[in-house]
Amino acid sequence: MKIEHSNIRAKSLNLPIDTGGDGSAPTLSFGDGDTGWYEILDDNLILAVGGTDLIQITGGNFTGVSSGNVRLDMNKIPTATSTNIIPNSTDTDTGVSWAGADILSLVAGGESGLRLVQDSWGTSLHIPEITTPTAIADWGAIYAKADNALYFQDGAGVEHTVTIS
Q: 53 lies in a domain?
């Protein structure tokens, strides 16, 4: 069906479109026909652009179609350790989260590892107290331990107390 130069005015409009299509020929397409939307399964919508599937929408989740793409869980309320902005859709306990009013939390493995906190004094960076981490060659680590000291560990695993004067 093709409608040209028409205005449709209604309080509601339901245009049932069959399930099906694919990225190269979306069911609801625009322009030359390889950009648009199609329903791959019931309640599972795909956006294709230029014949390539880009975004999948399922139950409030927005996910890049390829495995490992970014995922945004719209129906999930983030906590200090539960993310809803996930940089790799296959690693759902690592990402960006909310730890409270004016507190952004970076979460890895379901643990809050770094927080940015905004208060009346400005923005501060918070790291949790941990035990001495396992060294990673060619990487340094800055961390706090239960003795209230700040440490730097070099890639060889040598631990140095950070002193500020």
A: yes
